[in-house]
Amino acid sequence: MCGSMAGKYRFLSVLCVFALAPVQGFADDAAGSVYDAFDGAAAVDLEAQAPGTVIAAIRDALRHNPQLRIAEARQDAAKSERFRALGGFLPDVEATASYTDDRWRSDGLEVVGMSEGTTLGVTAVQPLFQGLSAFNRFRAARARVSQSELALLSTMQQTALDAARAHAGVILARKIVDHRIENMGLVSQQLNISEKRTEAGAQSRTGVEQARMRLAQAQVDLGEARTRLAQQEAAFIRITGRMPAAEMTEDMSDLADVFSSLEDALAIAREGNPAIAAAESAAKAARHDKSAATGAIAPQLTLEGSYFKRYGEDPLIASQADEEYQLVARMRMPLFRQGNNIANVRSANATVAQQEAQTTATLLAVEEIVNRTWRQLEQAKARRVAAESGIEAARQSVRGLDMEYSAGQRSVIDVLDGQRDLVIAQINASQADYEVRVTQYELAAATGTIFDAFGETSGLN
C-alpha cells in the first residue's frame, strides 16, 4: 500500500515545509514510505498565494491545527519504540565495582572467590537466538512507524478538507447575504413605488401594506443570513487561525475529473487513502507482535562473558592482584512463567483479529464515502444546471411583471412574488454550486488525492 502511494502527495510535500518544518524523510525505514515522494519535489512559494484562495486556507490550517502536532508527537514516539526494539539485538553490558573489608564480616563467614580489597568487573550478555521474538518486535515497531506516518498524512488530508469546506462555506454565506441585500433593495424600491401609486390614487392602500410586510420579512431573512455568515467565519477562524480575507477567491477547479467512473474512484481510494494504509500497517504490526509472543516460548540462546580484576587493600597497589574471566554459551528453555507466555500469545491473537477487523471496517467506511459522494456530486451538478437556468427565467419574469404592474395589469403582490422567486433561484444556484464544490473536496479526500488535485489545478506540480 505504501509503495503504491509513493507517486502521490507532491503538493503535500510543499505544504509540509510551512506546516511541519521538522518533518523529514526516513531513509532507514522500509522502502516505499509515503515520505519518499517528498524528495526532489519542486519548491513552490506558497507565501505568494493570495490570502483569499483555498490553497492559502489549507496552508494556514496546516500551520494552525494542533491535531497535526499530536500526530507528529505520536510519530516521534513510534520512532523511539523502533529504536528500543533494535536494542533486542544488542548486548547487555554491565560494569561492577565492590570493596570488601574483613573487619566488616564475621570470622566464620567464608566466601569463595572473594578476598579483602577492591574488585572491578565487566559482564556482557549477547543474545544469539530468541525464537525470532526480537526480530519480530523490531518488524512490529517498524510497521508502527509506517502507521504513524500514514496517520499523520491522514490528519493532514482531513485538515485540508476542513479548510476547503470552510473556505467554500464563507463564500456561500457571503453570496446569500448579497442576495438578501439585493432583495431588500428591490422590496424597498417596490414599497416606494406602491406609496407613490397609492398617493396618486392608482391603487389601494392594501398594496402598500403588502410591500411593507415583505420588507419586514426581507429584513428578517437578511438577519438570518448574516448570522449564518458569522458562524461560517467563526468556523474558518477556528480551522485556519485567521480571519477570512475581505475578498475570497472562489475555487473553480474540477477535482473529480480525474475519475473516469465510480469503480475507478473506488480503486484509487483503496490504494491511495492513508487511513486504509494506516489500518493495514497496524494489522501488520499486530501480526509481528503475535510472532514475537510465540517466539518467547522457544529456547533462548545467549553468549555470556565476564571479566573481574581484584586489587589488594590499597587499590593503588596491585600487590594482591588477581584476574578472572569466563565465556559461557547458555540456553534457557522457558517452561512455565506464571502463565504469562500463554496469555501473551492469546492476547496477541485477539489483537490481530481486532486490527484485521478494523482494517475491513476502515475500507468499508471509505468505500461508503466514495459511493455517497459520487452520487451526491452527480445530483449536485444536475441541481446546479437547473438552478442556473431558473435564474434567467426568474429575471425575465420579474422584468415582465414590472412592465405589467406599471401598466396596471398586475398587483404589487405579483411583482413581489416574482422578486422573491428570483432571490430563491439565486440562493438555490449558490447552494448547488457550494454542494458541488464541497462534494468534490470530500471525494478527493476519500480517494487520497486531495493534495494532488489542488497541486494540479493550481499549477504547483
Automatic annotation (TrEMBL):
Keywords: Cell outer membrane, Coiled coil, Membrane, Signal, Transmembrane, Transmembrane beta strand, Transport. Residues 208-235 form a coiled coil. It comes from the Bacteria. It is found in: Cell outer membrane. Residues 1-27 form the signal peptide. InterPro entries: OMP_efflux, TolC-like. SUPFAM superfamilies: Outer membrane efflux proteins (OEP) (SSF56954). It holds the Pfam family OEP. Belongs to the outer membrane factor (OMF) (TC 1.B.17) family. PANTHER family: OUTER MEMBRANE PROTEIN TOLC (PTHR30026). This is TolC family protein. It comes from Hyphococcus aureus.
